[in-house]
Sequence to fold (248 residues):
Amino acid sequence: MENKNLKKVNLSSAVGGFFAVFGVIMLCIGIISIVNSMNFRKNSEQVTGVISHIETRREHHLDSGSTEVHDVYVKYTVNGQEYEQELGFYESSMYAGKEIEIFYNPENPMEIKGNDGAISIILPLMGVVFLVIGLVFVNNDRKNKKQLEMLLSKGSTAEGIITAITVDHNTTINNRHPLKAEVTVNDPVTGEQFLYSSDSIMEDIRYLQGRRVTVYYDPDDRSKYYIDLDTAMNDNALGDAPQVHDFR
Fold:
């Protein structure tokens, strides 16, 4: 059974995919940076330089606001000639007048690199962390899909009522909050009441409040369930659903 009509937000898959891809990119960039730095140092000479000045500026980004950036410049002498070049990285312990070890290209003394070993390791380490987090989310998504397949093929069913449509304020996608359907199932045999909540979805389903919906559940563990909102939406596909203008 495939759910083609419901535009669900699969949080595990979306978040996991983002973290995994971002982690791989950071890992690759970090590894390339380390390799390039090692190759440079093999053929370089070392000299003690002095931080001449640090320029501070702000970079503005549309998505994350502004960040403070520091450009560090060092003076050093090679074969009696003084040079001043940008170092290429910044640490909070740096200040004008501080001595610092740098590596330079003997064939081009203006080409330098600082002793940024600790900083160069941070990027690939962060990449590994993001990758692991992404794989955890993807693995959870795989388990959820297997559970869904089991519920749809072998699970028991019960009829419930959509008692409320709530906004998932914990999640924002394209500056919008997804919605959830709150469902109540009353067992006519035992008189027990079961409360369920659907996955977060971007489709506007507020018009479904008060409608009946089928809930698939594991009879051995009713906390494992799936709310079939697809069928409820398909039943309203012929114009029953009102046009809603959301200005939230």
Remarks:
- The CA atoms of residues 25 and 127 lie 7 Å apart.
- The beta strands are 45-61, 65-78, 81-86, 99-105, 108-114, 156-167, 179-186, 193-197, 212-218, 221-228.
- Residues 1-9 have pLDDT under 50 and may be disordered.
